[in-house]
Amino acid sequence: MPAAIVERLSRAYGRVLDLMMLAASALIFVMTMVIGADVLLRNIGAGGLPWSAEISEDVIYLVTLLAAPWLLRGAAHPGRHRA
């Protein structure tokens, strides 16, 4: 494959990874807000959000799957060292 095509594919893949990391960051933010709202509602006696714990568990797995490729590509993962 010509080098120009490989370079374009690499940049496109990098953009996909950046979007995945952005999605992971947004999910962490939303999860933080939902947990905070749940705690606040329970403390004021409104009953809370019973589904927040289950959603948070699923979001943690999803964030791991979305963020791992970005971290590994940039050698930001503690188990991977730059050569």
Order of helices and strands: HH
Give the low-pLDDT segments.
none
Percent range for β-strand residues: under 5%
Structural class by SSE content: mainly alpha
Rg on CA atoms, Å: 18 Å
The domain tally reads 1
Shape: rod-shaped
Q: How many H/I helices?
A: 2
Average pLDDT level: 90
Distance between the termini: 25 Å
Number of strands: 0
Query: How much helical structure, as a percent, in the residues?
Result: over 70%
Largest sheet data: none
Name the descriptors.
single chain; 83 residues; mainly alpha; 76% helix; rod-shaped
What can be said about this structure in brief?
It is built from two helices and no strands.
Walkthrough of the structure:
This protein is mostly helical. The protein has one domain (3-73). It is 76% helix and 0% strand. It contains two helices and no strands. The chain has helices at residues 3-43, 52-73. Helix 1 (3-43) packs antiparallel against helix 2. It is rod-shaped. The model has no long low-confidence stretch (mean pLDDT 90).
